[in-house]
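User: Here's a protein and a ligand (iron/sulfur cluster). What would the complex look like?
Assistant: Let me lay out the input and then the predicted complex.
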Amino acid sequence: MTAQPYAYRRQELVEPDWTRLPGWKAVTREQWESAQWQRVNCVKNVRQLRAVLGDLVDERFYTDLEDDQRRLATMSMLLPPQMINTMVPTGRFDTEAFYADPIRRYMLPVASDRHPVWPSHPYASRDSLHEHDMWVAEGLTHRYPTKVLAELLPTCPQYCGHCTRMDLVGNSTPAVDKLKLTLKPVDRYDAMIGYLKAQPGVRDVVVSGGDVANVPWRNLESFLMRLLDIGTIRDIRLATKALAGLPQHWLQPDVVEGLERVARTAARRGVNLAIHTHVNHVQSLTPLVAKAAQTALEVGVRDVRNQGVLLRGVNATSEDLLDLCFGLQGEAGILPYYFYMCDMIPNAEHWRVAVWQAQQLQHDIMGYLPGYATPRIVCDVPFVGKRWVHMVTEYDRERGISYWTKNYRTSIEGDDLDRRYAFHDPIDTLPEAGQRWWERELATV
Ligand code: SF4
């Protein structure tokens, strides 16, 4: 057969050797596999990063990182050792390799990563999807007719630089003062359950945050059992990047036993219980991640699916996407489900891709994976929701403005279903004429 644009070869998963990093030279396997050890040893600041990496990385990087933290970061730093260990997993660990690493690029952004002229799109905003505007109870977003998003808490075991919920999730940074939840968790959960009991048209609940791995298990189990008592709820999806970022959490005996109780109850009641995780690059897949996914399936969770984010410099090539999807599907027992285009949040332009690039990537990954495991690349259009990238109704390529329609109403709109909603490509990806147009537009504001 003649050469193909993508050549598949099975790659079995390997846990990178954490003792290659100076700060973890003496860390035992028992420590490494303990969720508590991972949480206690998370890296939250430059000093702690230095203690782990020592002089593998030179001063230039740390200064660049501090600069980003001071001026540009929308998320505070929080990295479990598991995640750091997937950066530069093989080969020489030095400053250049660290700068170039795909996991580093989105989990530990530095000032020189950001676009020097257009760090933010002029239409970028905090809460770009208007989830907060659609709250029907604190943390409960009712955007689609039959589905809701329940944000149980505003924290995660790891913070991603491109987090779309940067408005709410994580600690405040010098650039972003975060929105605060005001109700006590118990009152917030009561209000959510009360709303869902009164809305028989809602059948699907994404239980999220933040990350459900940060909800004490007893509280999460009680919330899930209350959801399962509502006969009209037929799908429950648990959102947790920790499955990949801190798989040790999902392997703790009390969590596994609790998950089994919830899965058994869901199966008895005919409810589809799934875990949705967030992996952006094949390097994140290690044997421990596969074990966590496999364990969830063994105790009765119906499916573990991946919702990655399409990010320039991280995974926005067909080869990176296919490597990741084959790793998920063939090695980790995780279904490649979606790739979202990165949302229009502040300081994210260097990560975002244009709609036409996403369409090209969708085209290029077709036909290699089983059809049911071929992910859809979607654009989450403000006020609309997820649209496959080929569903654009009109597209001004010069100015990078795409227009989208929808087929349902949300709680914050009137009757008009004919309206078109705009989404914007990163300005640096536009032809010269389009870039000049935006410059003139902004000069007149
Ligand atoms: S895990 Fe999800 S919610 Fe948490 S910081 Fe990352 S993208 Fe945001």
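Summary: The first strand starts at residue 135 and ends at 137.
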